[in-house]
Amino acid sequence: MTTTHPPVPALATAPRASLWQPVYLRTELRRLVRNRRTVIFTLVMPPVFFLLFGTQSSYGTQSVGNGNVTAYVMISMALYGAMLATTSGGAGVSVERAQGWSRQLRLTPLRPAAYVLTKVVSALVFALASVLVTCAVGLASGAQISASALVLGALVAWVGSAVFAAFGLFMGYLLPAENVMQILGPVLALLAFAGGLFVPIDGGVFATIAKFIPTYGLAELTRSPLLGTSPSAWAYINVIGWGAVFVAGAAWRFRRDTARV
Amino acid sequence: MTTDDLALDLRGLHKSFSTPAGTVRAVDGLDLAVRPGEVVAFLGPNGAGKTTTIDMVLGLAVPDSGTVRVLGHEPSEAIARGRVSAVMQTGGLLKDLTVRETLDLMASFYGTSAAVGLAIERAGLADAADRRVGSCSGGQQQRLRFALALLPDPDLLILDEPTTGMDVAGRRDFWNAIRADAAQGRTILFATHYLEEADAYADRIVLLSRGRVVADGTAAQVRAVASGRVVSAVLDAPMTVAELSALPGVDRVEHRGDRVQLHTRTSDALARVLLSTAGAHDLEITSLGLEEAFLTLTSDVPVLAAAESAAVTTGSLR
Asked: How many CB pairs under 8 A join A and B?
């Protein structure tokens, strides 16, 4: 048969691939579960820290706001775990650039923005798992907290940790090292101390410094449902300000990285 | 042929890089037209501009000047449509995924999930499909890159030194897979610095040196140019081009003033004939400039030793 087909008019541009890539997201989550270090850092360490610091009988049962001190430590550690999860998820771009994976992806129709979105969403899924595990261990170990304070606090910890996904991306694009989390792990611990996430800082010069640390605002916002206080305007300014810095930094490096040079 | 009919159309490409030592002209005025269905070898030493050219074809680098058309499209457009794909030299794989997971993931980007089974089969990966990429051999990883490149069923397949670091058996298996694929009519462009690979697997060899095309033809033609010499002499009695061409081993004849220049691959025999029977004097035998470049790039053996055995080596390795 020799029928001739009318010529198909060529599209000026190929249809743009979707930003939403479910197969990629599933694959990324599978990789996170397989990575023993990620599992330990995000799902084991935060509850263990909670058990070490939050269940001391001397102060654990003292009541604060809508719960007790154990619940206060639980919520703080849930935020710390979520931060670790999102930071390491974002920083994963560093390793993948070093391994040439980003370059391989550039030879496919996948859009660079879809790559970043998938990394961020998978990091947020892991952050949620971290928050849930820490809260479950907390509730089973004597944390007392009203249901609404628990839900609200956990939600703020989870959503707020997105700021650190941007931080992780920024650092991941900035630092060429394959072992970027070996740098960022201690940095996060330092930020958590300096921002009053592990231990509240009262008065003095350190309290003043703490207000400018990226963890400060998130810590205050996350705890306020438990404490029954309304967060200060400064907490919002801190979170939004640092969030803007990290997003702008990540976007700047991202554009540099994907520029065809 | 118009640019839209060509698989690849490169015109006047230039690309320089700034290094601490100064500006390097990686690609310096390169023109190349590849017709559909050709299997073309890009042959040249490290630094000849092979990878830089390939990067520009794939849209990973932008030329300083000149144009790149891939199947009538801009490179980024050809990539987005899955018309061109590439097997890169190293990297580009996630060690913690299995072979099949990697293929499933990449196929999802092209929307060709059904192609995974065929790609595994064509690349000879059936035994390794459920193995983690990190525990695959170098040859298996390279065949995985090949399988990935097959997923969009591209019209043009580009391979950048695909067998670097592979053992002999792995190299043979890899090329068998490529050859079977080329038989289906796909256009293939591969970079290599192994003469025997170019010779055995390409219809056409494009020889690059210092960012330019210095020879372009069939394997036989390029080998003739590369292994040839020029015997020049002054003749007592003038001879016609036809007479000179009839001398043993003469490929080409040129007159330069009172000298004749005879291109040949058997310079010793020709010199003997010229001196003994043709009344030649002031005879000189010189290597072509190309030969030196060619041998340097195609052999790890020192140039002088390789020059003696070039023809034999290429013949026996096939």
From this structure: 80
